[in-house]
Design goal:
Blueprint lengths: L3 H8 L7 E5 L3 H10 L3 E4 L3 H4 L11 H14 L4 E5 L8 H14 L3 E3 L7 H9 L4 E6 L5 H4 L9 H17 L3 E5 L3 H10 L4 E4 L8 E4 L1 H5 L16 H16 L1
Parallel strand pairs: 1-2, 1-8, 2-3, 3-4, 4-5, 5-6, 6-7, 7-8
This protein binds 3-methyl-2-oxobutanoic acid.
3-methyl-2-oxobutanoic acid binds next to strand 6.
Length: 253
């Protein structure tokens, strides 16, 4: 399959229809989300926290990403599978291309990396290699240690202009969409209006981007120990698991 086919369809949704996106990390969830009609499944490095039990995404390796990307690819037919390049996997264009290829070999149809101006040469190299790329701006979880926590972005004009400059550099380098994380609504709307490619928001407020992405465990309530304040929980899977297991234990008594 030509890798750019699904990426081009998703890009063409700008101004036409909202882009729907959720994270997925395993076969069963990917299959359910794919069958429900989600446009894009992100095998996010958030798996470091919600699947592997690390405190943040900085512990995630290429081996983790390959393992989970392959599982999601086995479960998905229609959704675009987006593999996250984890921290330290794209220090220079050559390494970025090599690791992007490894995710594609595992089943990804596009890759995502974090950052703006400093990542443009890596994006260009991956795109020239025939692999579609999504950018990620605003709050960058791979830099949580340097940032000292998860903070909102776009609070000042200077900060907004810096995000905008990064977004233009990424667009120019060939990304087909940009994830905006925890960018304030006004700045999100400006970015969405100014860019030719879709913005996909998380923690940016409703209706300020061309689409929405959410971490699946936040949506279904399967990771109750940490839920970001902006998340909308639509089910209580953790509660259902506890209930079912208690019923199982009671039946054994
Ligand atoms: O890894 C992830 O889940 C992400 C989302 C927060 C967009 O990058």
């Amino acid at each position: 399959m030509d890798l750019s086919e699904k990426a081009n369809l998703l890009r063409a949704k700008k101004g036409q229809a909202p882009v729907s996106a959720l994270t997925a990390y395993d076969y069963a969830t990917a299959r359910l989300l794919d069958e429900a009609g989600v446009d894009l499944l992100l095998v996010g490095d958030s798996l470091g926290m919600v699947v592997l039990g690390f405190p943040d995404t900085t512990h995630v390796t290429m081996d983790h990403m390959i393992h989970h990307t392959a599982a999601v690819a086995r479960g998905s037919k229609k959704s675009l599978i987006l593999g996250d390049l984890p921290i330290n996997s794209y220090p220079d264009p050559k390494t970025a291309v090599a690791n992007a290829r490894r995710l594609v070999e595992a089943g990804a149809q596009a890759v995502k990396l974090e950052g703006g101006l400093g990542q443009a040469d890596k994006v260009r190299a991956i795109v020239e290699d025939g692999i579609p790329v999504v950018g990620h701006l605003g709050m960058l979880p791979q830099r949580v240690k340097e940032e000292g926590g998860y903070k909102k972005k776009g609070k000042t004009d200077d900060e907004t202009q810096a995000i905008l400059a990064g977004a233009f550099a990424l667009q120019e380098a060939g990304v087909f969409a940009i994830v905006l994380e925890s960018v304030l609504p006004k700045a999100s709307r400006l970015l969405t209006k100014t860019l030719d490619i879709p913005t996909i928001g998380i923690g940016c407020g409703e209706g300020n981007c061309d689409g929405e992405i959410a971490v699946i465990t936040d949506v279904i309530g399967s990771y109750p120990w940490f839920v970001p304040p902006f998340a909308t929980q639509r089910a209580d899977v953790a509660g259902e698991i506890t209930k079912a297991v208690k019923g199982y234990l009671d039946a054994l008594k």
